[in-house]
Amino acid sequence: MVRFVHVLSLCALSSFATAQSFNLEMNSTDPTQFGEPRKEMLNTEEMEKAGIAPVSVEFSVQLKKPIPMGCQYIYRVTNTSDRTVSLKGFTVPDAKFNEKLKPGASIDLLTNTMSRCGATKEEKKERGCIDCAPSINIQEIEVK
């Protein structure tokens, strides 16, 4: 039984080792507007071996609304490269995506989080969901 748990743990760690995670900044003056885009160059070991250059993308997030047990966000992913890219990943573990983006194209992903963003109801009303630290995780990248 202990060996099974160790193997299971190793498999989980190896799958996360290839994922790329990005914490996104909310718009501090108006969280219902998209925050400053985070510009990233995505690359994988397989892309390097094949001689494929990294692809540039932008990630941004905005608050859609607070919900009873958490927050609802819209994540925007924009392909700023000159090649078509397919991305697989998740914003929260049960909100997975698999999207193909042509050059210049964007997608919006709607996600509910189930984490409380303030210790009290007053804090949640005052700060909304701005302190939740939303993130996006890319697990697979394919460039065409």
Please specify the SSE layout and strand pairing.
Layout: H1 2-17, E1 20-23, E2 38-42, H2 45-49, E3 55-67, E4 70-79, E5 85-90, E6 96-101, E7 106-113, H3 121-127, E8 135-143
Antiparallel strand pairs: 1-8, 2-3, 3-4, 4-7, 5-6, 5-8
Distance between the termini: 44 Å
Lateral strand order in the biggest sheet:
1-8-5-6
Strand runs, count: 8
Helix content: 10-25%
Protein architecture, described:
The protein has 144 residues and is an alpha+beta fold. It has one domain. Helix content is 19%, strand content 42%. The strands form 2 sheets. A 4-stranded antiparallel sheet has the order 1-8-5-6, covered by helices on one side. A 4-stranded antiparallel sheet has the order 2-3-4-7, with no helix packed on it. A hairpin with a 5-residue loop joins strand 5 and strand 6 (96-101). The longest helix is centred in the first third of the chain and has 16 residues, at 2-17.
In short:
The protein has 144 residues and is of the alpha+beta class. Helix content is 19%, strand content 42%.
List keywords for this structure.
elongated, 144 residues, disordered N terminus, 42% strand, alpha+beta, 3 helices, 19% helix, 4-stranded antiparallel β-sheet
